[in-house]
Amino acid sequence: MTGGSRGIGAEIARRLAGEGFALTVAARQEAGVAAAVEQLRAEFGVEVHGVAANMASESDVARLAAEHEKRFGRLDLLVLGAGMGTDEPISALRPKAYDLQLAVNLRAPVLLVSQLLPLLRSTAKANPAAGARVVALASITGVAGEAGLAVYGASKAALISFCETLSLEESAAGVSATAVAPGYVDTDMTEHLRDRLERSSMLTVGDVAELVLSLTRLSAAAVVPTIVVTRAGPQMWRA
Predict the structure, then answer these.
(1) 89: helix, coil or strand?
(2) Which of 185, 188, 190 has the alpha carbon at shortest distance from 207?
(3) Residues 6+ apart with CB under 8 A from 128
(4) Alpha-carbon Rg for the chain in angstroms
(5) How many Cβ atoms are within 10 Å of 8's Cβ, its own excluded?
(6) Is the dihedral of CA 147, 152, 156, 161 positive or negative?
(7) pLDDT mean by block of 10 residues, the chain; 239 residues
(8) Which of 47, 53, 199, 234 is the most buried (most CB within 10 A)?
(9) H or E element in which residue 48 lies
């Protein structure tokens, strides 16, 4: 899984390790990857392979795919957890920030799925009852626009569409995809919002991880295109 060293990704990795999954955990910072791998191995005793990879780098994405295949030779669940965003109005968009968000949030997942699709197919063929799944961490801003998050929301909307298309093309052979689109989750990425949002009003990383784990328990016959999770209160369909 990508983005597995902190926040939502780290909690998903913990839940999967607790279920006995062997894992490849990828994140940009080598120190963060090493710490995550050590913790998962110590707490759950599962096989964990760590890969430091920058999702904005095409060569790093390719290396991640190759290392996982070489190490494990199968892929039951691919979690696309890496992501980044900037909060700025359309009138002040910076090309560099635009390019980076599209590279990490959309281009990297598309490339990684493309490179790992043969492995997903072979895993699904070997285990037809369960198949193989892709889960992408999108955002509710990809479903309903949010002021200041134009590029982030657009990248997540495209990721949702990509997951739907992947299921259309591959689910008959046992490979399906789900985009999980939550509102604001209490992580370090939303720390800048705490002057106007109480932490208790946000979703928890456990909320999202539980949904991802539930998908692993479905049969291959069950395709779930998108899961939208909004926060409690009057702001339904808002981040």
Answers:
(1) coil
(2) 185
(3) 174, 220
(4) 17
(5) 27
(6) positive
(7) 95 97 97 97 97 97 98 98 93 95 98 98 98 98 95 98 98 98 85 78 94 98 97 88
(8) 53
(9) strand 48-52
